[in-house]
Batch of 2 targets.
Target 1
Amino acid sequence: MISQKCQSGHPCLVPDLRGNAFSFSPLRRMFAVGLSYMAFTMLRYLKFIELPLSERKFCQSCQQLLLPDDEEKHREHQVVGDVSITQLKRPSKLLYPLENKKTNAQYLFADRSCLFLVDLLSNLGFRRVLCVGTPRLHELIRLKESGDKKSNIRSLLLDIDFRYSQFYMEDSFCHYNMFNHHFFDGKAALEVCKTFLQEDRGEGVIMVTDPPFGGLVEPLAVTFKKLIAMWKEGHSQDNSQKELPIFWIFPYFFESRICQFFPSFCMLDYQVDYDNHALYKHGKTGRKQSPVRIFTNIPPNRIILPIEEGYRFCPLCQRYVSLENQHCEHCNSCTSKDGRKWNHCFLCKKCVKPSWIHCSICNHCALPDHSCKGPRDGCFICGELDHKRSTCPNISTSKKVNKAVRKQKQRKSNKMKMETTKGQSMNHTSVTRKKKRRERTHQYLCS
């Protein structure tokens, strides 16, 4: 168990590296008598919602709901008061998104995309949604379930962000790592997920996942196949050929990798946008638009995209596509992947991006300023074919050379700056001297 402090130096409810325990000694006693982490957070949440509005407070420094007994420890922190039930139902708007791009960058669906997904899932007839890394979709499904009496759609959130455990019961949230299929709360959480997938013999359930774009496709595919196998355990042998419906949300340029592991998947033209991402926004054109798409094993002719947002139905392809995605009579399909109109190359016998031209040397289409030598197949440092750059024996030498080159460039840059500053100083001095000389000459002539 790890005792940690927040930025202000005060002890807070901070979980250990596994996300299973807190640093306070009373909690140690609770865990010693068998009270689980999820049960503890559930008790805290139930106590919190019973408080009057004026006493409901949230510590932004620690990202934690506060009970009256906790306020003294967070006295010097940034605390928000009057936390309403509406805010508790939208925790993704209350919590700060994680922004470490190297480890756990967290981008959240814009309401436009989220509402589209909720309506689409409802129209397709799904009653249960397994939300893997999609907290905002989970929120809106629960809001729809509580606000619309006719709605019978439920959801279970699997997410690595342990902070959501403060807002959800054990049957609606599991602390989960999608890259290694690990449930942090052990068999209890595993059983919750299994029960959710196998309910009604696995009928009426879909998995929607939005993995980090920096993650490798292969480990994600391995994890998703384990979830599919878990879903299949509740089926009879007669339904062994059926597939778990999936929406995998990922950039379009990963299409070949995703289809390599899931050949039945196809890519929809719908552009998914995010609230807290500068580039992935709807409404932009050309290469500035969001590259994020939906990959699914559901037949595309069943999925209706909103016409008011710039989508049309192609009667030849029997699916909805973006307006710029024109049908190619030679390929017999709407071939554009990025929203621009692609051109057909008769030499390559396929459609290519409008910025590409056919290279007679490479014998395929590429950018006009591409290198005809093409990428090196082996190591980028020494050129050998039996290993890659990460395992090159000369990598330390290469790093030293690169470091020396960087230092040399830095020295040259500093020298140029000094010379520029010196020149500006000398010029200023020269101008001042000339001005004084003119003034003295003027005074002499006047006298």
Target 2
Amino acid sequence: MLVKADFLVFYLVWITMAQLLAQEEKENVALKDLLSKIDLDELMKKDEPPLIFPKTLEEFEYAFNEHGQLRHTTTGEPFIFNYKEDMHRWNQKRYEALGEIITQYVYELLEKDCKLRKEMLPVDATESEPKSFIYLSEDALTNQDKLLVLIHGSGVVRAGQWARRLIINEDLDSGTQIPFIKKAMQEGYGVIVLNPNENALEVDKVGDPSTDTWDEPAEKRERKEECEGKKKKDGYEKYRNPQKERETKRIPIRENSSPEEHTLYVWDHFISRSLAKNIFVVAHSFGGLSFVELMIQREDDVMSRVRAVAMTDSVHNLWHQEASRSIREWLKERCCNWVSSPEPLDTPVDSLLPDCRRRSAGTERHELTSWNSFKSIFRFFNEHLQAQMEEDRDEGKVEEQKEEQKEEQREELKEEQKEEEEDASTTVTTQKRAKHEDL
């Protein structure tokens, strides 16, 4: 009897669970049916404000103070990312809109404060084709002594910037290349500022009639709609706010469609044509990789012109990039990479692979490595410049000695010629006397 009672209880529990599962499945089907009837795009647009943002710093109600810090013009507070709670994408778009304004602001500083001029690329560009540009000091190509070349990393940064995040959240000194430019000019360098992320022109994408799906088989169209519906639902769960943005396409800039291509182009058309005897390079993050690629493409030219390279948290890899042995040896002698590290500034840092020298930048923040290494980089350049001057002096002494030896040889040759001429003159005189006596 006890066994039958236990079996009866088990049977009742099983029946109850089956009914609950059936009810849950029924509710899920009803929920899915309800969601399929909701236009999630429209629902989410109601949650999210329009993606329309100010076009100037003044309209954003922000300005840079005397310390180069971005502050609200009314409250004096730093920039607030989470302007609207639970609207991450909208806040991100607002941040990006401010970033574009910051880019234009830095361009103005390069032109007005640093007195740099903009040079359009390609140099033979037509009116209609996409174009990029770099910045040069007035003496960049005519300075016969020193030239500084600045190459930033990848991402949204443009000419004159190391990190947009630092410009917005810290200050202009840490986030821009302006301190490097001003210091270089004070020490008599010409300056060239590269713009390796300006690779393409973005234009609105026009709908292509050939992509019309009405002729597709019904089954294929249904699968596509089902997939798109799932994406909408997933998007709603993740963001609450995916407004449709304008679709764009990228038109590559001729001979400048990648950071590596841009660096090579600027070398061929500007840096290599400068008169500077001593070229120095600062390359941050992906900029280091671009420089190594330049060396691979123009090895002899770069080695003969560049005196030293300062990298900051560079992401280059000499083996993956297949750099030659001579390049690896040159970098060991002429390059130093200031890397993110908890160690004090300039502390030697070991590398798993034999590469260029590595020193601590005194910070674990990747984007701060350039600014933290600022003074160390110029000391490093001065050391190599002094070494080059000593080498030139030694070569000059050798040349002087060679010239002195040549001069001595020329004097000896003149003496020999003079003696030969005197001997010849004496011989002629003797012959004349003998002939006269015979007569």
